[in-house]
Design goal:
- The chain has 241 residues and is α+β, with helices and mostly antiparallel strands.
- It has eight helices and twelve strands.
- Strands 3-4-5-2-1-8-11-10 form an eight-stranded mixed β-sheet. A four-stranded antiparallel β-sheet has the order 6-7-12-9, with no helix packed on it.
- The longest helix is centred in the C-terminal third of the chain and has 18 residues.
């Protein structure tokens, strides 16, 4: 699970469907589930002959804090601020299914939280698990973006910020190369936000967002390529009544 090149991530993203399913309760707590699903028809186009030669089976479930306990000797070597960062992920549950026989490749991250602001950037979960296991430096800091969430009872914000300009420019270049090579392929690469609120929705910052008939759920779908090239375009603000 050590950090891999962004081009390999693009191969993964180019055949991936990601869904963030967020539910906020009336007390401010709730649940976030992020599912990453490999779309088989798209991946088959990218993998070519290697697709039929896959021989993989993995089905595991763990909670992040299990790794903190199991590799406590490594954990205590990190700086206090790094340990605090890991603790933000302590209750994240991860289920990984990789089956070349069933052609099911799925990763699901689940977190029950007390406050929306406690939600960490779940994209970094597996990198941090690998760091603790192998006593690496923080490999997820190679990510060029950070996702954060906030909710004050009336206004919800999903904020994506660029934290590494050099890596961002590199990612955009590799994304353009990917598009030039596979742009003609019919790939499924969707990213869907499904956010459920305890009160009626008054307004949403993105004009493409769809509000449900009961006014309590907002859905926004965009292409992963858009997210890769301009993560900040997926920022979202929802104002409740």
């Amino acid at each position: 699970m050590k950090y891999i090149s962004f081009f390999l991530l693009l191969i993964s993203f180019g055949s991936c469907q990601i869904t963030e399913n967020l539910t906020i309760n009336s007390d401010g707590g709730g649940t976030l589930e992020m599912e990453q699903l490999r779309e088989e028809n798209s991946y088959m186009q990218l993998a070519g002959e290697a697709y039929s030669k896959e021989n993989v089976f993995k089905d595991i479930t763990y909670i992040f804090k299990d790794y903190i306990s199991k590799y406590s000797e490594n954990f205590v070597k990190y700086k206090p601020e790094e340990q605090q960062l890991f603790q933000k992920y302590a209750d994240v549950k991860v289920n990984i299914k990789r089956s070349s026989f069933e052609k099911e490749f799925r990763t699901v991250f689940t977190l029950h939280f007390n406050k929306v602001s406690e939600i960490p950037d779940l994209f970094k979960t597996e990198d941090y698990v690998s760091d603790i296991e192998h006593n690496y430096a923080l490999t997820a800091e190679n990510h060029y973006f950070r996702i954060g969430y906030d909710f004050d009872g009336k206004v919800f914000k999903r904020s994506v910020s660029i934290i590494n300009i050099a890596e961002f420019e590199k990612a955009k270049g590799e994304s353009e190369n990917f598009k030039a090579k596979y742009g003609a392929s019919k790939l499924t690469q969707s990213y869907v936000l499904k956010y459920h609120f305890p009160k009626n929705i008054h307004s949403v910052s993105n004009s493409r967002a769809v509000i449900s008939s009961d006014k309590k759920t907002v859905t926004l779908e965009f292409q992963l390529s858009d997210f890769v090239q301009n993560p900040e375009s997926t920022n979202l603000e929802v104002v409740l009544q």
